[in-house]
């Protein structure tokens, strides 16, 4: 009888949802069984604003505790599309410097907001111009950009996520999947309506869930994001990448969210219940 080999995914999480102090972030993540962290900020300072001394200090803390970085959770593209192309290309340079110092392959980014009253279709060309410029910079630096389907940006639906990644056509631009964000913009079923469409470009999993009726964020499996179906399909497709906790359970704001150690633990255990159910190991 052949023994079934359980697939393994690398557990990670947004450290600053736990605490501003990287040491606390790492301690909580490691208690949940994670060996990776997704870095959005440290000591209350965004990753693109950390100076060289702070980056060196952060790299030292990570090395001392045996923690690796799954991705740089940058704010690139979380600005109005009317800003010049160079604005976000310059900021991406700082994210790339952080990725280089922290030995991270991936950088999360977004596909731009628009002014109130502007139809989303009207910003398509400007978005693609900017995403192409960002992808060119990433290619030159040897990093991979992960587009997150954030609410109210151009790429907030499966169809427009696909439009971005296929129109730009760069090996340095892939997709991060966030079920909760799809729920919150009215996608009826993130898995049924988006998974098959986006799977060829899906490189990274961000984990949170949400209720369709209210938009309230919930732990994985407790909302309408079809997390179990999505995780099962990823298992069956041979996915072996990251599953990064982004719980948003106690506070959500324009730049991200916060959970605290206790709520972050709730989110981590909820994900592990789902992966245990489908025979996936988180490590």
List keywords for this structure.
alpha/beta, two-stranded antiparallel sheet, 9 helices, TIM Barrel, 9-stranded parallel β-sheet, globular, 283 residues
Question: What integer value in Å does the Rg equal?
Answer: 18 Å
Strand order of the largest sheet: 2-5-6-7-8-9-12-1-15
By CATH's scheme, which homologous superfamily applies?
A: Divalent-metal-dependent TIM barrel enzymes
Estimate percent helicity. Answer: 25-40%
CATH architecture: Alpha-Beta Barrel
Report the sheet-strand fraction.
15-25%
Morphology call: globular
CATH fold group: TIM Barrel
What are the secondary-structure elements, in order, as H or E?
Answer: EHEEEHEHEHEHEHHEEEHEEEHE
> For the residues shown, what is the average pLDDT?
95
What's the CATH C level? Alpha Beta
Helical region count? 9
The count of β-strands is: 15
State the gist of this model.
This protein is 40% helix and 20% strand. With 283 residues, it is an alpha/beta fold. It is globular.
Explain the overall architecture.
By secondary structure, the protein is an alpha/beta fold. The protein has a single domain (15-278), classed as Divalent-metal-dependent TIM barrel enzymes (TIM Barrel). It is built from 9 helices and 15 strands. It has helices at 22-31, 52-64, 85-101, 124-141, 158-168, 179-184, 190-198, 227-236, 260-277, and strands at 8-13, 36-39, 41-42, 45-46, 68-73, 106-109, 144-148, 173-178, 202-207, 209-210, 217-218, 242-245, 251-253, 256-258, 281-282. Helix 4 (124-141) links the parallel strand 6 and strand 7. Helix 5 packs parallel to helix 7. The two termini are 27 Å apart. The model has no long low-confidence stretch (mean pLDDT 95).
């Amino acid at each position: 009888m052949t023994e079934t080999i359980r697939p393994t995914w690398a557990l990670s999480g947004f450290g600053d949802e736990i605490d501003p102090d990287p040491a606390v972030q790492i301690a909580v993540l490691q208690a949940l069984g994670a060996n990776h962290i997704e870095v959005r900020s440290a000591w209350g300072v965004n990753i693109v604003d950390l100076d060289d001394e702070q980056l060196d200090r952060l790299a030292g803390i990570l090395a001392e505790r045996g923690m690796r970085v799954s991705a740089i959770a940058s704010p690139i593209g979380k600005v109005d599309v009317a800003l010049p192309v160079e604005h976000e290309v310059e900021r991406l340079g700082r994210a790339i410097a952080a990725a280089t110092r922290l030995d991270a392959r991936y950088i999360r980014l977004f596909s731009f907001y628009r002014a109130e009253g502007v139809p989303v279709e009207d910003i398509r060309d400007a978005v693609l111009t900017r995403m192409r410029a960002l992808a060119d910079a990433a290619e030159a630096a040897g990093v991979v950009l992960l587009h997150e389907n954030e609410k109210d940006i151009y790429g907030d639906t499966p169809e427009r996520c696909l439009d971005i990644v296929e129109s730009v056509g760069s090996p340095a631009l892939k997709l991060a999947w966030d079920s909760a964000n799809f729920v919150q913009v009215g996608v009826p079923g993130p898995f049924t309506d988006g998974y098959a469409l986006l799977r060829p470009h899906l490189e990274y999993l961000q984990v949170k869930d949400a209720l369709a009726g209210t938009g309230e964020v919930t732990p994985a499996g407790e909302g309408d994001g079809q997390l179990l179906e999505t995780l099962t399909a990823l298992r069956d497709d041979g996915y072996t990448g990251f599953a990064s906790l982004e719980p948003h359970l106690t506070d959500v704001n324009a730049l991200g969210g916060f959970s605290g150690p206790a709520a972050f633990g709730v989110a981590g255990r909820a994900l592990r219940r789902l992966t245990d159910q489908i025979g996936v190991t988180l490590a």
